[in-house]
Amino acid sequence: MSENLAALRAELNYDKTSKCVQCGYCLPACPTYLTMGKETHSPRGRINLVKMAGEGKIKDLSVLEEPLDLCLGCRACETVCPTGVEYGAILESARAAVTRRKKFSVPVKALRNTLFKKVFPSRRAMKLIGNAMWLYEKTGVQKLARKSGLMEKLPAHLGEFEKIMPAPVSPGERSSLPAVTRAKGEKKYTVAFFVGCVMDAMFRRINHLSVQLLAEVGCDVIVVEKQTCCGALHAHTGELDESRKLAKQNIVAFEQAEVDFIVNNAGGCGAMMVEYDHLLAGEPEWAERARQFAGKTKDISQVLALCGGIKGQERPAERVTYQRSCHMTNVQKVTEDPLGLIKGLPNVELVEMKEANMCCGSAGIYNIVQYDASMEILDYKMKHVKDTQTTTIVTTNPGCLLQMKLGIERENLNDRMRAVHLVEYLAERCGINL
């Protein structure tokens, strides 16, 4: 074997492809295979392409780009694979290999560098974005833009997403998340809260409610100052080196706080952080520190359940359904705690939708960059949502939340259905308001 081919195999995680026996168990679990019906858009098809590249049968890695880009990265295939194929590791390595060889245009390269190196990792930059969203609404520019029809002319269907953006919080509210919030009553745990980048900019209210709920159940909550983006968006778009840098920064930041758990409220962020040990496994000076960090990482539903759940108030009866976050389900393996919290609320009936584990098509920014494919998957999901005849969709991930809001909009169900984050719903049912 030539030295170049050996290096490429290591880069592609080629050794991990040998576990795939091409049995096809992954096909019914894969949203893109179900909606597109092409072997190259199935897990085993993508693995076979990576394998062929590692064997020198595919010389130009750009051949892999479309099949890899059209993958949601939901990792549902891993849960049904009888041989334990590490599809997520293969996918990320292959995407990174393709990205390293791709020649981006100057504008695209500049945009990627700005977003991945200057914007997402910077809490200051994300704060400015959040404040700009507030100004956009409060100054009346939003109403004017919508009335003029400008939103309909935006590229990449951004006008559709603008309609479903959450209500922004004021700069004053944005700055009011305290460094330490004490437990109400007897303290059970001390936790560090991960604020995230998108959550911090667009869903600040959910972050505030998360801290209040944690305090309500008996947690001292610390907000670590020098934390940064989890690195998930970077890893999913082939920027693995940047993802590793962010992981190291978070490890250093959270090591300064002596806590029982590191708590997040976004399925995608949690899935990234719980795999920091895999991300940094090849760096001996970081491997153990990453393992300890990953071991402390918990979704907020896990900690709330561990503390005894939320004592909801007597409120009007309601039927709800739960949209499972793929990364919470398939990577973090958190499945029962959110359901238990919802079922424990008075006068709430939980109705599980058919194919509940199927991805909604959000997948980070997939619904923007692969709009048509994403909408096919969303429409498939919304058929099952409507069959539940519920009034509320509860989610645990910001991408899922926006996607389900978009689904409600596309189905003209705004007058009878809503989508909320689990944290919002729990706070609402137990009377916690900002």
Offer a quick outline of the entry.
The protein is α/β, with parallel strands linked by helices and 434 residues long. Helix content is 53%, strand content 8%.
Molecular structure report:
There is one protein chain. The chain has a 5-stranded mixed beta sheet. It has a 4-stranded parallel beta sheet with strand order 7-6-8-9, sandwiched between helices. α4 crosses α7. It contains 26 helices and 9 strands. α25 (398-410) links the parallel β8 (392-395) and β9. It has 4 domains: 3-101, Fumarate Reductase Iron-sulfur Protein, Chain B, domain 2; 106-163, no CATH class; 171-305; 310-429, Rossmann fold (3-Layer(aba) Sandwich). With 434 residues, the protein is α/β, with parallel strands linked by helices. The protein is globular. The chain has helices at residues 3-12, 14-17, 31-36, 43-54, 65-69, 76-80, 87-101, 106-119, 123-138, 141-148, 158-163, 171-174, 198-202, 204-216, 232-236, 240-255, 267-273, 276-279, 284-296, 300-306, 326-331, 336-343, 366-369, 371-387, 398-410, 422-429; strands at residues 180-181, 189-193, 219-222, 261-264, 297-299, 318-322, 348-350, 392-395, 418-421. The mean pLDDT is 93.
